[in-house]
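To: structure desk
From: M.T.
Subject: fold request, one chain
Message: Could you run this one when you get a chance? Sequence is below, nothing fancy, just the single chain.
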Amino acid sequence: MKRLCTFLLLALTLVLAGCQGRSLKDIKVTSARIVSIVPEGLTDLSALVEVGIHNPSVAFEVTDLIGLARFEGKDALSVTADQLIVAGHSDQLYQIPLKGHIEEGFNPFRLLRLLGSESSLDDVTVSFKGRVALRGGIGKNIEMEDIPLSTLINLPEQHEEEP
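Reply: Done. Structure tokens follow.
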């Protein structure tokens, strides 16, 4: 039994060492776009976003994804998403359904200013929190804060179609 445990620990160490290689750092979001937004009552909404991911590494999953959009520095919209499984060694587009809620005290009609010429998507920032894990469960919590929405929406599309 001790040999089996020693072998499993050694194998796990080798797998983790292999996963720490350069390819994990090379994972990139290559495109992002809002496919649809559907109001649900006065304060809730459903949205579908499409994200291109370049993953030269092993498959992983993203869970517990929570996002917050701020408009001109004020909390505007909070969103959550279900689990996303990203295939290994691939360039793919993933459609992610989101459930959202307009934050209390935020006037949704302020978002109409985005259609005007005096405002830009730079007035909207997004923050994300989630857990990224290998399919076996080993993972890490991640957090990205105050990214201008224009940076995400204007990403060049670099993904390749699968044969």
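Reply (cont.): The two ends are 46 Å apart (CA to CA). Let me know if you need anything else for the meeting.
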